[in-house]
Amino acid sequence: MIKISPSILSCDYSKMGEEFENMKKCGADWLHIDVMDGHFVPNITLGAPLVKCLRKCSDLVFDCHLMISDPQKYIPDFIKAGADLICFHVECDSPIDDTLDLIRENGKIAALAVKPGTPIETVYPYLEKLGMVLVMTVEPGFGGQSFMADMMDKIVALREECAKRGIDMDIQVDGGISLDTVEVAAKAGANVLVAGSAIFGSSDPKETISLLRSKAAKYF
Ligand code: DX5
Ligand code: ZN
């Protein structure tokens, strides 16, 4: 199933609550919340206290993308704040299995992300524990970067590996997704589409979400 997850990194932070409410009206399925610690990536965004406040503004799935060095330490805070899905990077410093178990034991969806330079095979040992894999199509840290089409081979390989194991995995792409690139990503096998600047920079976000969905749906 196609899911459109607007990245709130590109929204107007001075009226985040309204932006969250508006995304539901525009037809978003999830809300992609980019958490950066200034250490794992060279940028700082927001933490669990803000997620807790925003929880009051939306009942959509909170898809929390943790670009932080030690996710294990902060995951309890994000769970308490109302995260539904917690995605952290396979390149982080926390023990992967224990961190996945922590998310799952709390009844939340566990996901792993891979940076562009990281082979997709690094997530294979954990597939049975995962509800989603995020294949980054830009270097994490900033919105508005160009889509890396050479990441598509990873998505194809991951789809094949999941099919071989009989796993119906959500595969997310994040970075540079727009009306021009969404079809390439969906054709490769990505069904969860994150878009920041393409949605929040659009004069008609509802129409953009609807077009992203229909373009991707051709391949599913
Ligand atoms: C980048 C973030 C993305 C980013 C995507 O590190 O993980 O979610 O906001 O922004 P766009 O869609 O503008 O590339
Ligand atoms: Zn992200």
Structure, explained:
With 220 residues, the chain is an alpha/beta fold. The chain has a single domain (3-217), classed as Aldolase class I (TIM Barrel). Helix content is 35%, strand content 20%. The protein contains eight helices and eight strands. It has helices at residues 16-25, 48-54, 71-81, 96-105, 152-165, 182-188, 197-200, 205-217, and strands spanning 3-6, 30-36, 61-67, 85-89, 109-114, 132-136, 170-174, 192-195. An eight-stranded parallel sheet has the order 1-8-7-6-5-4-3-2. The longest helix has 14 residues, at 152-165. The chain is globular. The model has no long low-confidence stretch (mean pLDDT 98). It binds D-xylitol-5-phosphate and zinc ion.
How are the elements arranged and paired?
Elements: E1 3-6, H1 16-25, E2 30-36, H2 48-54, E3 61-67, H3 71-81, E4 85-89, H4 96-105, E5 109-114, E6 132-136, H5 152-165, E7 170-174, H6 182-188, E8 192-195, H7 197-200, H8 205-217
Parallel strand pairs: 1-8, 2-3, 3-4, 4-5, 5-6, 6-7, 7-8
Helix pairs in contact: 2-3, 3-4, 6-8
The structure holds D-xylitol-5-phosphate and zinc ion.
